[in-house]
User: What shape does this take?
Amino acid sequence: MKEQESYQLFKTDLCGFCYRVRDFAEEKGISLTLRDTMTDMEAFRELLQGGGRSTVPCLKIQREKEVIWMYESLDIIDYLNEQAIP
Assistant: This one.
């Protein structure tokens, strides 16, 4: 049994790679909390502090007390695809 995870996608509305991740997650029925780093300064600060870069898309993966920051749309899609396998 896989650990329960929650996901936050740090994104902007101008980023095509962000839309790629969002479209994939929607297609697979994966729930993502969207955090827009251009309109939400708290999201921008959290991304910089937690992930160390302001680059989007960035997927924040929360497993109990463990947090993983994942960049690059194809890496994110590959990861989410592995998690979606029953």
The first strand starts at residue 6 and ends at 11. The helical segments are 16-28, 41-51, 73-84. Strands lie at 6-11, 33-36, 58-63, 66-71. Residues 16-28 form the longest helix (13 residues).
